[in-house]
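Input (structure):
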């Protein structure tokens, strides 16, 4: 009976993996409409460079590999994170900046362990929030091509809210399997002078993963489906006017006309993703190394390279105190649009301390130390957790 049940579950896992990976083939027909600027959620992961696909026993695993939800230390686990990000230039172009932001609650999760070694979790997250500011722009007219002395502001805002549930189970001490379903709402707001457009859209994505332990080595694999939410901008003042050629087949043979569009569509795209991870055995009973390789199915027109790498280590200084270090890449290629190439490398540092039932942790992510321009960014994440044994 046990063998049949195990085979049945493995067949379900394989079917869902096939469905998730099918999203890579569909992804190539879409192009992201906004800068790819994900917030770095997951203090425990970014303590050691963001490698977390092969880690179990942490509630943060719901974000990286749902199978890692297995082996929680207690019956009930509660976790909350906040984040601060520093202002940084976008693409190294003067006058266009990501603004500094603080999120008091960027991630919150709760997980329960049942008597049958079944783990259930739920979470709230803000995965991608940013404001892209543009320095004041001078108004020009045909009569005053050098400027009228008046200025207007422009800014782009993107906000996402996620709610999800995750489940995991373990088979003995070696194999853990898990899955996650996530609903995500995306909001967009753009302001150019006194024209303000707003819109929102939502969609569902899911993830599945497994963790295998062999002789104190851990190996993990997870995959998540493509997320694509589409919507329309609505205007709080008046719609923008745009110039349109009435004869697009013979451009330049007639005057352009000014029209007022009914709506402007927008969409958010987060591509299908697959991640492989490994955690080494403990060396000298104090240090373990973590490595992840991630592939995102961006299409050829996107500026983000599909392969990303994460790695680092954790050092146990005492039974209740741990520090971590690592690095990961955020590889971009803007040759086509901006004649700029940039591979952003984040250095990470973190620590965690356990005080009875509480766990306090922090992680710092900095890409400015290795940057050769002004595009470096800085994230500081703080978390508090509670475990009921």
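Output (sequence):
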């Amino acid at each position: 009976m046990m063998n049949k049940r195990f085979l049945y579950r493995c067949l379900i896992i394989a079917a869902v993996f096939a469905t998730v990976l099918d999203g890579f083939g569909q992804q190539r027909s879409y192009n992201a409409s906004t800068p790819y600027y994900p917030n770095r959620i997951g203090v425990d992961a970014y303590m050691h460079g963001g490698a977390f696909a092969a880690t179990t026993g942490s509630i943060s695993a719901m974000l990286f590999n749902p199978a890692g939800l297995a082996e929680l230390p207690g019956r009930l686990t509660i976790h909350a994170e906040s984040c601060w990000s520093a202002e940084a230039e976008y693409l190294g172009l003067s006058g266009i900046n990501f603004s500094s932001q603080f999120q008091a609650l960027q991630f919150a999760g709760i997980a329960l362990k049942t008597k049958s070694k079944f783990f259930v979790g739920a979470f709230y997250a803000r995965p991608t929030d940013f404001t892209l500011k543009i320095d004041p722009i001078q108004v020009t007219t045909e009569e005053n091509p050098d400027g009228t002395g008046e200025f207007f502001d422009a800014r782009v805002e993107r906000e996402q809210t996620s709610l999800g549930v995750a489940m995991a189970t373990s088979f003995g001490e070696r194999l853990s399997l898990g899955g996650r379903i996530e609903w995500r709402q995306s909001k967009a707001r753009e302001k150019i002078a006194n024209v303000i457009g707003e819109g929102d859209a939502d969609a569902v994505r899911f993830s599945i993963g497994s963790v295998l332990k062999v002789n104190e080595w851990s190996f993990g694999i997870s995959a998540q489906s493509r997320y694509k939410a589409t919507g329309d901008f609505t205007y709080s003042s008046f719609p923008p006017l745009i110039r349109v050629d009435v004869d697009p087949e013979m451009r330049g043979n007639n005057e352009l006309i000014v029209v007022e569009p009914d709506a402007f569509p927008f969409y958010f795209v987060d591509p299908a993703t697959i991640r492989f991870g490994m955690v080494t055995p403990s060396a000298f009973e104090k240090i373990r190394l973590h490595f992840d390789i991630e592939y995102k199915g961006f299409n050829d027109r996107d500026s983000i390279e599909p392969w990303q790498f994460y790695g680092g280590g954790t050092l146990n200084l005492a039974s209740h105190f741990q520090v971590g270090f690592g690095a990961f890449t955020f590889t971009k290629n803007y040759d086509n649009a901006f004649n700029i190439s940039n591979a952003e490398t984040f250095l990470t540092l973190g620590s965690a301390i356990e005080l009875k039932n509480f766990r306090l942790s922090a992680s710092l992510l900095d890409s400015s130390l290795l940057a050769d321009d002004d595009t470096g960014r800085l994230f500081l994440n703080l978390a508090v957790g509670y475990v009921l044994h």
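Notes: The chain has a mean pLDDT of 80. The longest helix spans residues 2-27.
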